[in-house]
Amino acid sequence: MLKRRWLVAVAVALVLGTAVGAVAAAAPSIAAVTCPQCYGLSGLGDGVYAERDDAGYRRAVDAAQRRIDAFYGGRQAHARVLICATDACYRRIGGGREKGKALGTRALLLSPTGAGEVIATHELAHLELHQRLGAARGKVPHWFDEGLAVLVSDDPRYLGSGSDRCRLPYDQAVAVTRTSWGAATAGGTDGGYLQAACVVSRWKSGHDVLKFIADLRAGKTFDAAFSQ
Questions:
Q1: Domain count of the fold of the chain
Q2: Which residues form the signal peptide (predicted)?
Q3: Enclosing domain of residue 60
């Protein structure tokens, strides 16, 4: 009987080990978020994990969180943040060529080139919007999601410093609302971000984002909520 129980225990352990290994191989980002230490990341406090013990990382994330607080009047999304100091680390945790990547509403990954306040704010802005929208998230087109994240992060690459934040003519920018995000960013260009940032910044000057979110959650279509 004892031998049989031992054999069952070994079989279960092997199955569980295989399952964990399969998840890590198929979805390294999920595995890394679940166990950052398993991927060589150390805790810096408050859900921030980094490949290198650098206080600058915590300062960047703290500043990004303050921007979210200021824009929305508080935060509803509380993400685990994984920061890599090397490209090898970022690839290992499931990153690609992007500077940062939001995962659902609970976590984000930052690459060596994205481990700063602006990119951290951009990605946290995605998480915050998605958390607040809930089931209505699917109503929001990609261009609006990206444009709002650029606006919240106040990214100088895509926004001007004057009263009109557009860096290109509005008639040219509004084309982003009539095409797919893939087409707008084809070839890895920044054109889609410039367009989206322009349209959303103009829209935001006369609209309340919180009301917009509430309208979507109440059942309105994106076009109806956006036009009000």
A1: 2
A2: 1-24
A3: 1-124
Distance between CA atoms of residues 227 and 199, nearest Å: 12
Q: Confirm if 160 and 193 have CB atoms less than 8 A apart.
A: no
Structure tokens at 7: 């054999």
In this structure, the answer to whether residues 97 and 2 fall within a common structural domain is: yes
Per-residue burial over 66-82, b if 16 or more Cβ lie within 10 Å, else e, is ebbeebbeebebebbbb
- Please state the separation of Cα 227 from the chain's center in Å: 26
Q: Tell me the pTM.
A: 0.86
- Asked whether 150 and 196 are in contact (CB, 8 A), the reply is yes
Which strand ranges, in their side-by-side order, compose the sheet holding 42-45?
42-45, 48-50, 80-83, 107-110, 100-103
Query: Within this chain, do residues 113 and 199 fall inside the same structural domain, yes or no?
Result: no
pLDDT of residue 224: 97
The residue to which tokens 């060529």 are assigned: 97
Domain boundary at 99, 124, 149, which?
124
> Is residue 202's pLDDT more than 70?
yes
3-state secondary structure (DSSP) of residue 129: helix
Q: How confident is the model at residue 155 (pLDDT cuts 50, 70, 90)?
A: very high
Same domain, 120 and 149: no
- Does residue 183 register a pLDDT over 50? yes
Lowest mean pLDDT among 26-40, 56-70, 163-177: 26-40
